[in-house]
Amino acid sequence: MSFRLAAYAVCIEDRRVLLVRSVSSNGESSWTLPGGRVEHVEDPIDAVIREVAEETGCDAVVERLLGVDSRVIPAAAARAGVEHQNVGIFYRVRITGGQLRPEPNGDIAESVWTAIPDVAVLRRSSLVDIGLALAQTVPATGHVAPVSVGGLIQH
Fold this sequence. Notes:
Elements: E1 2-10, E2 12-13, E3 16-23, E4 29-32, E5 35-37, H1 44-56, E6 58-73, E7 84-98, E8 108-115, E9 124-125, H2 126-137, E10 153-154
Parallel strand pairs: 1-7, 9-10
Antiparallel strand pairs: 1-5, 2-3, 3-4, 3-8, 6-7
């Protein structure tokens, strides 16, 4: 089994959420939240701010911790072909400057503000639904029920 600790930004402004479109090596794309791996000895808050800057070109500040999600991706669906556990730390983040742009030399082809009702029709990572659920409910435990994967929602 592989393991990854990641930090994700939930940026909501004027009933829109900031999403990034990730393109895989085989050319498939899906929408997700800005964020990614927490590097060795990196603080997760620093990681989410770094990831927002790398993936979107924007500066950000963390407003609050929203919650933590842990999910196991079956080997058949995981990129590496082995069972994978992803532990995601979700933060409410506010954009403070910069300009949206694709990630230079990276997997992010574009970043856009998307009306929250329009998210339902996008091919997207389950991380988007988890982040939105955390932002909308702010559960005391910092945990929401698992999001089902299928149809437009991917691992």
